[in-house]
User: What shape does this take?
Amino acid sequence: MSIVSFIPTWLIVVLVIVLLVALFIRILNSNDIFVLTVIKEKFFYFFIFIFLAIFVISVINIHRTNDIDLTSFDGVKVAVKLYYNWFASFFSNVFKVTGYAVHQDWISPGNETSGGG
Assistant: This one.
């Protein structure tokens, strides 16, 4: 067993996010306008990078959780099915949370403004 197998997945995700934020802050401090221009011009590549990072982290998590044998075709087929189900449930949960937030009464009765003078 390697030392990486003892590290929880959430800790790896948090460390990656912290490192990316630190790198972004370091670049931002050097030249604010240049960084925003690069992100604007290279948004597609930035989006692809984020998507691939999430994809790799989720595949590693599914592999660890279900102990899938990726050396056989049946193992890969099971992994694809599990990933598809995970991905579908992820979007289902996002839609549920978004729908719940939209249907909340965000204006309390004491904060309403009256139209009269």
In short: The CA atoms of residues 86 and 117 lie 55 Å apart. The chain has a mean pLDDT of 76. The helical segments are 9-30, 32-41, 43-66, 73-102.
